[in-house]
């Protein structure tokens, strides 16, 4: 065997090993997501899917359920003001006791656009999962209010994602009220 064909085989082996590694990560992501549900919930979902695929009645049931879910989503969007347009998740590190994932969320709260990027460290200790947000980065459309810029900066430093969502919801709602009020006087 000449050296060039040997190198081609080694390259192919490395490519296959990389593909196996990626598929293993995807499998672990899917498996981890499924562990958030109990065995009872999974069996119940499987049985409902099996029952729904048996006939024409199940199609109308699926349509009704989809319409119900769409109404619920519409209600939550109207109630909270949040409309998420995209979400991506990438696993950075995985072991038996810890997982690090990078998340990116984009959306609007009322009329304010935002993008949030963060790392989520999940640790398993004695059958309990704890999660810590780090590397929080918040990008918002240009807002002239310096207090909002200060708030975003301090929230990023503290990594307080929940505080951001709670506060931006209130701020965006009142921002809308202020805009309408100033338009009324113009």
SS-derived structural category: alpha+beta
Topology as a string of helices (H) and strands (E):
HHHEEEEHH
> Which range does the strand content fall in?
25-35%
Characterize the overall form: extended
Oligomer: single chain
Nearest-integer average pLDDT: 81
Note the main sheet: 4 strands, antiparallel
Count the beta strands: 4
Rg for CA atoms: 23 Å
Query: Strand sequence of the main sheet, in spatial order?
Result: 1-2-3-4
Poorly predicted runs of 5 or more residues: none
Q: Span from first to last CA?
A: 83 Å
Relative helix content? 55-70%
Number of helices: 5
Please provide a written account of the structure:
The chain has 186 residues and is of the alpha+beta class. It has a domain at 81-184. 59% of the residues lie in helices and 28% in strands. The protein is built from 5 helices and 4 strands; from the N terminus they run H-H-H-E-E-E-E-H-H. It has helices spanning 3-34, 39-52, 56-80, 146-158, 161-185; strands spanning 82-94, 98-109, 112-125, 128-140. Strands 1-2-3-4 form a 4-stranded antiparallel sheet. The longest helix has 32 residues, at 3-34. It starts with a helix and ends with a helix. The mean pLDDT is 81. One of its GO terms (biological process) is CENP-A containing chromatin assembly. It comes from Pomatorhinus ruficollis. Pfam families: CENP-P.
């Amino acid at each position: 065997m000449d050296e060039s064909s040997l190198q081609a085989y080694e390259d192919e082996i490395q490519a296959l090993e990389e593909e196996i590694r990626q598929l293993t990560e995807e499998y672990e992501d899917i498996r981890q997501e499924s562990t958030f549900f109990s065995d009872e919930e999974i069996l119940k979902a499987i049985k409902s899917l099996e029952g729904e695929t048996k006939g024409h009645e199940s199609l109308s049931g699926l349509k009704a359920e989809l319409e119900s879910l769409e109404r619920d989503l519409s209600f939550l969007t109207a109630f909270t003001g949040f409309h998420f347009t995209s979400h991506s998740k990438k696993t950075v590190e995985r072991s038996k006791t810890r997982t690090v994932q990078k998340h990116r969320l984009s959306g609007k709260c009322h009329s304010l656009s935002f993008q949030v990027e963060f790392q989520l460290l999940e640790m398993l200790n004695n059958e309990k999962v704890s999660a810590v947000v780090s590397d929080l980065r918040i990008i918002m459309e240009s807002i002239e209010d310096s207090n909002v810029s200060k708030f975003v900066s301090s929230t990023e430093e503290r990594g307080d994602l929940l505080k951001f969502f709670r506060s931006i919801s209130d701020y965006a709602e009142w921002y809308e009220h202020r805009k309408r009020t100033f338009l009324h006087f113009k």
